[in-house]
Design a protein that fits this description.
Helix content is 41%, strand content 20%. It has helices at 3-19, 43-54, 93-103, 137-146, 166-169, 176-199, 201-208; strands at residues 24-28, 62-64, 69-76, 79-86, 111-117, 125-128, 152-157. The model has no long low-confidence stretch (mean pLDDT 89). The protein starts with a helix and ends with a helix. It has a single domain (21-208), classed as Peptidyl-tRNA hydrolase (Rossmann fold, 3-Layer(aba) Sandwich), CATH 3.40.50. It has seven helices and seven strands. By secondary structure, the chain is α/β, with parallel strands linked by helices. The protein has a seven-stranded mixed sheet, sandwiched between helices.
Length: 209
């Protein structure tokens, strides 16, 4: 084998190893931009942001144009985790997620999506191993783009809409009373995600659902 070809193969293998050294990829769904920061639809962003803080890497989110996402990374008990905030807007979240899944040759068993859910009471958490989008456009986009619904998700209850269309409701800010409780809710989500990373989805469902 020519030395130049051997060197190229070694470099390709090193790159492959670098891509595959993440144990889990946690994707929080939301919309980019300051005006969406405190909306119900952006609870997924807030969860991965809090996760980054807990891993001492809050200021390390970097925009990766190829992924159309803000990316961060850290460790949970020596297990490497990639934190993702898609920047393709909620309804196109799948474009970002599919590019990351393909790039890292990721098993869908190692993917967790964090999203809001207006069918759940405020602050209620639900882990699922797979399933439909449940009417959530971000999850719908992910399913369409990766071609599967067999990935884990954490749904965070944002309360049931009253006298308002769902599309309008999710883009509203939380009420003052809800916002006061949000830090504790978000911290519980982070605790649950860390448990999931160590113990897997089935045990996590048994403990947190």
């Amino acid at each position: 084998m020519k030395r130049s070809l051997q060197k190229k193969l070694i470099q390709q293998q090193r790159k492959k190893n670098q891509r595959n050294n993440f144990v889990k990829i946690i994707v929080g769904l939301g919309n980019p931009g300051k005006k969406y920061e405190k909306t119900r639809h952006n609870i997924g962003f807030r969860v991965v942001e809090e996760m980054a803080k807990s891993l001492m890497s809050a200021d390390k989110f970097k925009l990766k144009g190829d992924f159309r996402a803000l990316i961060n990374e850290g460790f949970v008990e020596n297990e490497k985790v990639l934190l993702v905030k898609p920047q393709s807007y909620m309804n196109n979240s799948g474009e970002s997620v599919s590019s990351i899944v393909n790039y890292f040759a990721l098993s869908l068993d190692d993917l967790l999506i964090v999203s809001d859910d207006f069918s759940l009471p405020f602050a209620v958490l639900r882990f699922r191993q797979q399933g439909s989008s449940g009417g959530h456009n971000g999850l719908k986009s992910i399913i369409e783009n990766i071609g599967h619904s067999r990935f884990s998700r954490l749904r965070v209850g944002i309360g049931l809409p009253e006298k308002v269309e769902c599309a309008e409701y999710v883009l509203q800010n939380f009420s003052p009373a809800e916002e006061k409780r949000n830090p504790a809710v978000i911290k519980k989500c982070v605790e649950a995600i860390k448990f999931y990373m160590i113990n897997g989805i089935e045990q996590t469902m048994n403990v947190y659902n």
